[in-house]
Design brief:
With 215 residues, the chain is an alpha/beta fold. It has nine helices and eight strands. A hairpin with a 6-residue loop joins β5 and β6. α1 crosses α9.
């Protein structure tokens, strides 16, 4: 299956992408991974992306699209893939269609993870990260540490990242609604969108997603 995963910040896209990719035996292709791989490997696209990033500028669509196209043409993606974080806007969605048509393939589904805005804010603004290891993540409501402000794993200080503050989260949501959400309408016109609620436990959301995908 060839799937695009879409949803607002805090919808759990990364978590669901990993589970779905494993269940469907297809690679999980995330924008972040694409950038890191191309930059670390020193590819031409990676060099271009790094030059824009070092200058504090947005990486142009054509560079991102080029990276995604190269990745989708790798042997492990011949029978399908799950795109996470791409496309981010309608122009990227249109370019993706062109790239797939050139290879005589098409998307099977666009999975839309739906979460109320207040829940998104609660999920992200409540996160607390360990200063010693960012992989140690807690939440003021959903995953409380045994001792407030202290990491259960290593005893490090827990803090709230600037990106996780409520004002910043709401700005990120505005960007999502303005730039990314329109791709849902674009794909709805093609009959590809499957919308599910991303509320509930991780395995419950995964089960709903698999059912929506007909698996």
């Amino acid at each position: 299956m060839r799937i695009v995963l879409v949803g607002p910040p805090g919808a759990g896209k990364g978590t669901q992408a990993a589970f779905l990719a494993k269940n469907l035996s297809i690679p999980h292709i995330s924008t972040g991974d694409l950038f890191r791989a191309n930059i670390s490997q020193g590819t031409e696209l990676g060099k271009k992306a790094k030059s824009y990033m070092d200058a504090g500028q947005l990486v142009p669509d054509e560079v991102t699209i080029g990276m995604a196209k190269d990745r989708m043409e790798q042997p492990d993606a011949v029978n399908g893939f799950l795109l996470d974080g791409f496309p981010r806007n309608v122009s990227q969605a249109e370019a993706l269609d062109v790239a797939l048509q050139a290879d005589d393939v098409k998307l099977d589904a666009v999975l839309d993870l739906e979460v109320p805005e207040d829940e998104v804010v609660k999920r992200i603004a409540g996160r607390r990260i360990c200063r010693n290891d960012s992989a140690h993540v807690f939440h003021v409501e959903y995953k409380q540490p045994k001792t407030e402000g202290v990491c259960d794993v290593c005893g490090g200080e827990l803090y709230q990242r600037d990106d996780d503050q409520e004002e910043t989260v709401r700005k990120r949501l505005e960007v999502y609604h303005t730039q990314t959400e329109p791709i849902i309408g674009y794909y709805q016109a093609q009959g590809l969108v499957k919308t599910i609620s991303a509320l509930g436990k991780v395995d419950e959301v995964t089960a709903k997603a698999m059912e929506a995908l007909g698996r």
